[in-house]
Fold this sequence. Notes:
single chain, alpha/beta, Rossmann fold, Arc Repressor Mutant, subunit A, 2 domains, five-stranded parallel sheet, 8 helices, 60% helix
Amino acid sequence: MGLRVLVADDEPMIRLGLRAMLEGQGYEVVGEADNGRGAVELARATAPDLIILDIRMPHMDGLEAARAIMAERPTAILLLTAYADRELVEKAKGCGVLAYLVKPFREADLVPAMEIAVARFQELQALQKEAGTLRDALEAREIIERAKRILMARLGLSEGEAFRRIRRLSMNSRKPMKQVAEAILLAALPEEERPER
Length: 197
């Protein structure tokens, strides 16, 4: 894997535990911050592959830090929180956070959440390159997510396999991934709900 990870949490024991978990799994911890402002500065200095941010930190909370980091140098972000409410999740999505974990968490939860954050970030980067703007990329991502779920349900594919299938269809047809995903969604509609041509 070899991901370079930045950890930001105001609790020293959490940072220490995260470092141990990450290094035990073969990841490189490139920096630790105890506040949001420090996380933004370290992200700038170390250019990590993934940033793990606590939501409640002094000087700048995790959501503000995520917003600042995404504006400067988009990076995969995993948010740690003691709160699992819907409003927080919506705010986190709006800041560019791609996955989150509720404290306390286990090591078995951490690695999959990190992998999801990095995979979604890579997908978003590919879509942004294709779409041109972040808003277009986010819209395309939502359509592709829905198409992936259809392929996963109908063909028994994993999330990664479904994404690779859409990307392969896109390359073979020389059409944007969003168009391919829209065609998958259209094909999944019952006959009577399909628009007339």
